[in-house]
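Re-run with default settings, no changes from the original entry. Doing this only to confirm the output is reproducible before filing.
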Amino acid sequence: MTIMNFSLYSTFLLSMTGLALHRTHLLSALLCLEGMMLALFISLSTWCAFSQSSLYSVSPMVMLTFSACGAGAGLAILVATTRTHGTDRMQNLNLLQC
């Protein structure tokens, strides 16, 4: 395993661990999700560069576009919950209540 593969795997696993264990604030959960997506983007980009195939060269940009759309939607949810509940703590959110 190269040092680059190890760093990408460890980045993804640390972001996943942060998402699983530190879910007190919605912003920290969104940052962990963004870290996971960036690790996947970098690994997909390096895989496409090593394979040197023009067929897969568009897939990192598509993934980055979906990641940016997901980050925008997450920040919109963060702003909406902060305005309605006054905080971004996950414990105060009741998702089943209308």
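The chain has three helices and no strands. The longest helix spans residues 59-85.
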